[in-house]
Amino acid sequence: MKFSFTDEQNMFRETVRELFADRCPPDAVRQSWDNDDGRVPGLWAALAEMGVLAVLAPEAAGGLGMNEVDLVRILEEAGYAGVPEPLVEHVAVAVPALAEAGHAALEAAIAGDSTITLNLSGEVIVGAAADAVVHRHGDTLQLVTEWQADEAASIDQSRRLGVLTDITAADPLDGADPDLAFDRAALGTAAQCIGVARRLLEATVEYVAERHQFGKPVGSYQAVKHHLANVKIALDFAAPLVYRAAWSVAHDDDPAARGRDVSMAKAQASEAVDLAARQALQCHGAIGYTFEYDLQLWLKRAWTLAAAHGDVRFHRDRVAAAIGI
Amino acid sequence: MKFSFTDEQNMFRETVRELFADRCPPDAVRQSWDNDDGRVPGLWAALAEMGVLAVLAPEAAGGLGMNEVDLVRILEEAGYAGVPEPLVEHVAVAVPALAEAGHAALEAAIAGDSTITLNLSGEVIVGAAADAVVHRHGDTLQLVTEWQADEAASIDQSRRLGVLTDITAADPLDGADPDLAFDRAALGTAAQCIGVARRLLEATVEYVAERHQFGKPVGSYQAVKHHLANVKIALDFAAPLVYRAAWSVAHDDDPAARGRDVSMAKAQASEAVDLAARQALQCHGAIGYTFEYDLQLWLKRAWTLAAAHGDVRFHRDRVAAAIGI
Amino acid sequence: MNLDLAPQYVAFRDECRQWLTDNHPGRIGSMDTAIGFEEHRAWEKVLFDAGWSVPAWPSVYGGCDCDLIEWLIYEEEYWLSGVPGRVSANGVSLLAPTIFNFGTQEQQDFFLPRMASGEHIWAQGWSEPEAGSDLAGIKTKAILDGDDFILNGQKTWCSRGAFADWIFCIVRTDPEAERHQGLTYLLVPAETPGMERRPIGRLDGEPGFAELFFDDARVSAEHVLGGVGQGWAVAMAAAGSERGLSLRSPGRFMAAAERLRALAANVTDLDPRLRDEVVDAWIKAQAYRWNTYQMAADLMEGDEIGPEASEGKVFWSELDLELHATALRLMGPMGEVAHAGNDWLDGYVFALSGPIYAGTNEIQRNIVAERVLGLPRR
Amino acid sequence: MNLDLAPQYVAFRDECRQWLTDNHPGRIGSMDTAIGFEEHRAWEKVLFDAGWSVPAWPSVYGGCDCDLIEWLIYEEEYWLSGVPGRVSANGVSLLAPTIFNFGTQEQQDFFLPRMASGEHIWAQGWSEPEAGSDLAGIKTKAILDGDDFILNGQKTWCSRGAFADWIFCIVRTDPEAERHQGLTYLLVPAETPGMERRPIGRLDGEPGFAELFFDDARVSAEHVLGGVGQGWAVAMAAAGSERGLSLRSPGRFMAAAERLRALAANVTDLDPRLRDEVVDAWIKAQAYRWNTYQMAADLMEGDEIGPEASEGKVFWSELDLELHATALRLMGPMGEVAHAGNDWLDGYVFALSGPIYAGTNEIQRNIVAERVLGLPRR
């Protein structure tokens, strides 16, 4: 029983953090909104280069052969940086599903030559410009390679959405488990939520220490202190559940226990990021409400990710079922 | 359209407030706990004398022929004073029910020679030492005059509870409407909640202005200010719903509209008094947590009245049904 | 207490409702776009011509001398009808009470009818980069030069500022004076040479505000409202209006609550927790209504709105957020999608500014604690 | 990361669970009554004799040198088993770490085994009427007279104070010194002549606390802990314990969450909103658990608990309130009724004190903001 990350895991995280800081600063995120594909040029290749896309692919297939515990803080960093790519979809869900199904598309996926997104619960897909979609079809998964979708504009410009209207070509992904895929998607999203919340909190702490009103720093007012203390507390009691869920997904063979742990994580991470966004905006005041100021990148990510792959109510219901009430 | 009380109503309220201040101070409430009947000696007779018990009895029957709008702020004062008597039960519900049924027990009830309590939704009756119980029996009301009950100890010493186990003598109260009786009980309880919340807020404002910690008044800390501002806001947006509901009970012939208005009032009054109790205790700190200090009288009343005659959830459900969702 | 509507109020309500039904302009553009702004201005003229622009004003300025109850009924009907919002709101709700209180006869005669008709759409120019909720930090200088003031400095967060015709500003006319001293309330034509405006996008990119830059901009001293150096007192009177009855009448929230109710009623297998949230918001809209009717009764007895206006500001701004957040939750995964049928998303973004503008809710709670409850300032 | 329990931990857990099952004393009286207090003392002795009283302590003082993981497992099993609470908690959780850190060898040898066995039950004597969360306001004087201190003053809110054998106090040994200076940590026998104690009833009337009155009470200077004038530093180290791991281990809340779950599972037609509240509380208990295991891993690497302990204090105290308030709501109208099966009501009253004692949650949030997040003090 040792609930901490290894030095290697921390180092990997640090390297990815630096990559994002370097290749995906807020300006790059904003530029991606005007690109045809909504991507940050070169970032996907750099992630492939670094092995990030291959974390959950077995070594035999050219991957790193790591697991969700290795991945979880990487995805947190993606949230922290506001990466506008379907990273969770591709890395945390599609890659292991392709591996489990032994599908040939795995090679391109981990090489960064393709981008694969998800449609596990219907309605809206993220990363509408992706090359393929891992799609839930009854109790199985498919890899959809040709489809029609209506574009949909998210409040979050970093999310290129589409509403799937027709599937014209798809391969079965036998051996890949749709429930596991969903848990991975929820876990990855929870990790991103933690990263987004951290960034919102850091940015706000920095701002309120500098900004003065009525002759003293805004951050010296007790109301502001308590708003941000509450965010910190929510974060510090949500993050361990996310790490614990990563362990369950990687190591627990009981789908019910795994689902319960993932749902606890996503419920608390959603709540934490929601509170972080609310207080970040309130403590920033008007400046945080503008399009020009970068806080909006994380505010919108907070709103959308809190609900993505199951909102608080959905995941609490799953926990309720798992614990017999 | 004029949403305010008349000078006469305000004066009546003031007179009752003075009566309670004089005859029912906290010491008298505490003494009542040790009495056999749980009553404040002489208070009931004084209320009869002043006409309070007869507000909802018609003039022809020797009552004041007033309505719930006249009564609502009187009951608020009962909450404010922490009166340990089944006043709502008797005045707001039993008296008009007896009048509507033309039952002979009305005379003693308004003369203060008897005390009548309620059992409208089962389980627990308040004022176990009362002389009779207005009891819901299917779609009718009965006046129960002989019964067995198991005593039950409330956390609130001012509430003598009993769990009804058997009814051995009862008169039908034809002409009295059980739904109207319930609405009156919920309305009266909501009014009491408002009074309790006012008292909790006043006592706390007074305490935190005096109490010093870390070299300044506790009430000068922004966290404490905001706690109490929130209570004030909750109160000032709950009270008008209670007064509006009083008007509906007195004047609206549509039971659905009446029930909706009463439920809006009770839901918000329950929330307000709950918040008031929470913040009153927190802002008082340890002293408020003691049996000796009088704050506990209103804290316990807050906990019990917030749930009595329908808690927040119950009343929100009634509103939901009334507005078609 | 009498909550029955007297026959003349019923007649007023029916007339108002009928007119709004008959004259509903349909969906028009956003007032934060150049085209939508002019469409909204045209709607103001339609209202004005029919006498429905500023019903609570004296008829000489285009109103119909409504009493407070009629005004509240008008607002309820206005918002429930679903006609466009009021691009004139800054002027009518925030500036007009100040002109009525402090304006000269000439100012009243010139500005009020033009405001009522939509000829003058007003923006507010109070905030500065270093002076948000703390207006005493205002630095924009206005130095008297003959009959004019020469302005230098910067204003920000001017809502409607991108397209407005006039801006009501607070400027520092005595640079030596500190904090609240030496401020002056000044009405500035948007076409003033030396004044530039730059739109600021709000969260969703729409230019909801503007920044104003003054570089030796010359404004006639005739446009001072309420006396040089009196700006603080004059502004505080208007701040009372902003937080009080006139800016956010209950009708707006009752209409939103009704739309939310209808949205929920159409959801199959409505989650009981979401039902609970809808009901809670619906009840609060009613609470806001009855709190307002109570205040109206007091006002009609001659009372004034004091610091308790701050309670209303906190309540409506948090209610507005609750209404819109609940609607988005009801819409599930489609809540984040901007499309023609999703006014809730736009409304949510707007609602997010509620707890911030017109004095943050933190400041309002301080006011409630200190000035309503009497807690010690320090 | 490895969340599998190693075989030796599994064995430890099973042994612990078995012993608690075999030795469960059944329901005993409240520790706030004279009889119940002695019943609890007897239970301490049972635990001690079996080596389960202070498992994390060195064996020389009655412990079994548990590591932190074992201690967390022990706490989980202890609370889940439903055996009585620990009347020794003030001593074991608050005082003992201070004795380990600051006590002389003689003090350790004398006090620790007697604390472990229940021979000495300790109360805390820190608060005074004018010094609640602000310990710097302590006024109780202790003046050296030969080998003794002469105490005068008053302490209050001493939990277990009515029946305890010893009280650990903070007193002012230098009356000239201000605020945090001149304070001394002093161990006071309950039978000290010149010290009177008066029980204080908590909300439900049970004597959960005592007031202590010192009137020329004479206490040996041998009982100073950590040096005369060092009281503040010594107390702050213990305050770290009080807010940190040792006072409120996750096991306590996990057990309460499990009881709440079981309560809810037995309700027919469970209201979905209440189900939601139960689940939320249950998840939070797990969150508290995993946060603690994370902290334990850091501690085992040699890190110390810093101001982030304040986060835990806020979290567990509000969770405890949520657990109990939810249970009472589940019980409906019977929630207010005190009876043998309703431990929740008693627990609710106790939980209400959580956000107040050991530094109010307002102060804890200040600490989180200033010392964890680094926001400016003023």
Give structural notes.
The complex is a heterotetramer, with two copies of chain A (325 residues) and two copies of chain C (378 residues). With 325 residues, chain A is an alpha+beta fold. Chain A is 58% helix and 14% strand. Chain A contains eleven helices and seven strands. Chain A is globular, with a radius of gyration of 19 Å. Chain C has 378 residues and is an alpha+beta fold. Chain C has three domains: 7-87, Acyl-CoA dehydrogenase/oxidase, N-terminal domain (Butyryl-Coa Dehydrogenase, subunit A, domain 1, Orthogonal Bundle); 122-230, Butyryl-CoA Dehydrogenase, subunit A, domain 2, CATH 2.40.110.10; 244-372, Up-down Bundle (Butyryl-CoA Dehydrogenase, subunit A, domain 3). Chain C contains eleven helices and eight strands. Chain C has helices at residues 7-23, 34-49, 68-81, 89-102, 105-117, 231-243, 250-265, 272-300, 309-330, 343-352, 361-372; strands at 122-125, 141-145, 148-159, 166-172, 183-189, 195-200, 209-220, 337-338. A four-stranded antiparallel sheet of chain C has the order 2-3-7-6, with no helix packed on it. A three-stranded mixed sheet of chain C has the order 1-4-5. In chain C, helix 9 (309-330) runs antiparallel to helix 11. The two termini of chain C are 41 Å apart. The mean pLDDT of chain C is 93. Chains A and D meet through helix 7, strand 7, helix 8, helix 9 and helix 11 of A and helix 7, helix 8, helix 9 and helix 11 of D. Strand 4 of chain A pairs antiparallel with strand 8 of chain C, so a sheet runs across the interface.
Question: Which structural traits does this protein have?
Answer:
heterotetramer, A: 325 residues, alpha+beta, Butyryl-CoA Dehydrogenase, subunit A, domain 3, five-stranded mixed beta sheet, two-stranded antiparallel sheet, 11 helices, 7 strands, 58% helix, C: 378 residues, Butyryl-Coa Dehydrogenase, subunit A, domain 1, Butyryl-CoA Dehydrogenase, subunit A, domain 2, four-stranded antiparallel beta sheet, 47% helix, 15% strand, globular
